[in-house]
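ingest -> validate -> predict -> emit
validate: passed (alphabet ok, no gaps, 283 aa)
predict: started
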Amino acid sequence: PSPVLRVRGYRIGWLLPWLVLAVALSTTALEWRGERQDAMAELKSDFDFRVRGTHYRIDVRMQAYEQILRGVKSLFITSNNITESKFREYVKSQHLEDRYPGSQGVGFAAISPPRNRSSNNSATRELVSSVKYIESFVGDALNKVGHNFYEDPVRRAAMEKARDTGKAVYSGKILLALGDDDPSMQSGFYMFLPIYKNGMSLSTIEKRRASITGWIYMPFRMVDLMMGILGETVTDIDIEIHDGEEISDSTMMYDPDASGAGGKPDAFFVDTTRMDLGEHTWS
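emit:
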């Protein structure tokens, strides 16, 4: 016979099947919760792995671009007679657009003699840096020969930092058009590497400033660059790149799905990392 329970004089044997069901459901719920936690932990592990992988791929590619500039710099170090044809021939021989897609080209901006400029009835001497050579990978040249980079405070700041440190330096965020045939604007930046007079001492900032002759540079448009590094955009992970440490729409340099600063609000996981590249910070 079935067991009979008595509570305060009542027979409750009929409750036993429901108690068993409740226990079974509770056990199932606990097992489901444990499996869900395991699944989320696996997703988090995969997410962290992809964050590290993305960081690594960007870092390695940008180091490669820096080495490209150093290779072009060696051309200036080993020769005192660089011409436009020699410059273009060297850059073309590297097949950079095939090996490292993403850059828009390689150029050389030379220091020009200071020019007088009248301002508020006083004469000032303004330093000029004009594009001398440019080998574009995208058809139209991004910067016309003779263009003065020093007129732009963002590029000028990067050029002066490169001059003073002797290192490759990235500019801040700049809006770049592809060329005359494609005037659409896209966030980007420049990488500058200084060129000094051969045989001069570069042991101090003052000596580097006195010896500067120009800069090798590469312009990058962010969407094109990231396509070259990361390939086709994926749909299950949202990658943003910001200029500096601030996360905002104004600092946004790359956001392929246009979700806005901070990404998608329903994301399972969010991680922010800082990358120090070319004396500059990306988030």
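The radius of gyration is 30 Å.
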